[in-house]
Amino acid sequence: MSLPSKENFSEWYHEVIQTAEIMDVRYPVKGLYVWFPFGFKIRQLVYSKLREIMDREHDEVYFPALIPETELGKEGEHIKGFEDEVYWITHGGLTPLDVKLALRPTSETAMYPMFRLWVRNHADLPLKIYQIVNTFRYETKHTRPLIRLREITSFKEAHTVHKDFDDAAEHVKKAIGFYKEFYEFLAIPHMIIRRPEWDKFPGAAYTIAFDTIMPDGKTLQIGTVHHLADNFARTFDIKYEAPNGEHHYAHQTCYGISERCIAALISVHGDDLGLILPFEVAPVQIVIIPILYKGREEAVMEACKKVQESLSSFRVVLDDGEERPGAKYYKWELRGVPVRIEIGPRDAEKGTAVVSFRDEKKKFEIPISEINEETVRMWAEKLKQRLFERAAQNMSEKIKFARSAEEVRMWVGTGVAVFHLCNNAECGHTVEEAGGSLLGWFEELPEWIEEDAEGNCIICGGRGRLAALAKTY
Ligand code: 5CA
């Protein structure tokens, strides 16, 4: 059975998730899905990179999944932002609980009462921790596997505490750097955008988001970095003693990434045949397919095994199953295997193999003696470059510079409208009447967007900076 064309992105996505065995969508609770073993391997490979990046500067921790109502409700803005989305535990068995317990929608209110105990002195700062856990949000918008979940299974949340606003602001920049590195590793082009006031994280001073553009022109928020100022510190009484003996409220940041990073990986790179995975995160990196003819199997198998042995530092499958080669190609293409090596009787005789890459139609011949770790690493690097360039090209085609609100209205739905916009909230709301959401102002411009950073506001004509508006997931 073949996939729907990627032109019908929504159907394609739903099918590829199931048939490539990423998630089983048949679990009987809305917004909850099951990781298949193959999907979970991708998750593990992607998240081990995220962990590696986090571990450089943060300590990993684990906080409980249950938060007492008394803590969750403390920070006014925060609870206002989340109250519609919280799952509550009201009973232990048949006994009503004295204090209701929330299933964490995110962990500020689980962590910060403890931070109050952990932070005493300036020497305790900065404090930088992270955890990778499940969180629960009763989402009312259309739920979708990996994209909009009611149980987010792979929520990487980092939380930091600093001595003052500027120190925290410096750290926000660093966190943006961590996420840039992560998404570059996945070859996923993205936009770094400062959200408007009305769309920042509940309780934050400001929010900077990573958005990528999906094949249908809608954007997906694939990570956020929040400066919390001392908002939570005042609520949870997180204070430290400065060297001069004075006591100050701390300033905080938090930033998160969920399995949406895997949704983006699948959607941005995949094609009509299925997944296309960068080499580092492919559960199977290389497939070797023997082309077997009766009576000449032995030489072919011997050559295949020789290649397999020389590549033992990679995740290699030698597919010597009964299926026809065509069926094997199809199966491994669906799963996004980056490198395919075929060897037939004539190749075996000559000591050569036929190599092809998942993202290209062409095949080439290479002496078996030249297939080694170094060659493969070079192939992997080039593959990643091609994936990034192709994705950036696709995204730049979805971007249109608009000179009037009417032009914004015409383009939204097809892609992302960019234009200059001043800081006035009224102008922001006016441009949103064109449809879609104002993502906010570019914090930095990706190289695949060539517009000027500054210009006249599309609404009032005053001084503006480049902003973006789109339909969002
Ligand atoms: N405490 C902060 C930082 S960890 C926080 O919760 N921020 S958040 O609400 O913006 O979530 C972080 C990221 O998780 C978002 O940028 C988005 O990419 C992802 N996310 C949010 N809600 C969902 C959801 N329902 N399903 C999947 N991913 C989600």
Describe this structure in words.
The protein is of the alpha+beta class and 473 residues long. Helix content is 34%, strand content 28%. The chain folds into three domains: 261 residues, 2-Layer Sandwich (BirA Bifunctional Protein, domain 2), CATH 3.30.930.10; 99 residues, 3-Layer(aba) Sandwich (Rossmann fold); 72 residues, C-terminal domain of ProRS (Translation Initiation Factor IF3). It has 14 helices and 24 strands. The strands form five sheets. Strands 3, 7, 8, 9, 10, 11, 14, 20, 21, 22, 23 and 24 form a twelve-stranded mixed sheet that branches. Strands 16-15-17-18-19 form a five-stranded mixed sheet, with helices on both faces. Strand 20, helix 13 and strand 21 form a beta-alpha-beta unit. The longest helix has 25 residues. The two termini are 28 Å apart. The chain binds 5'-O-(N-(L-cysteinyl)-sulfamoyl)adenosine.
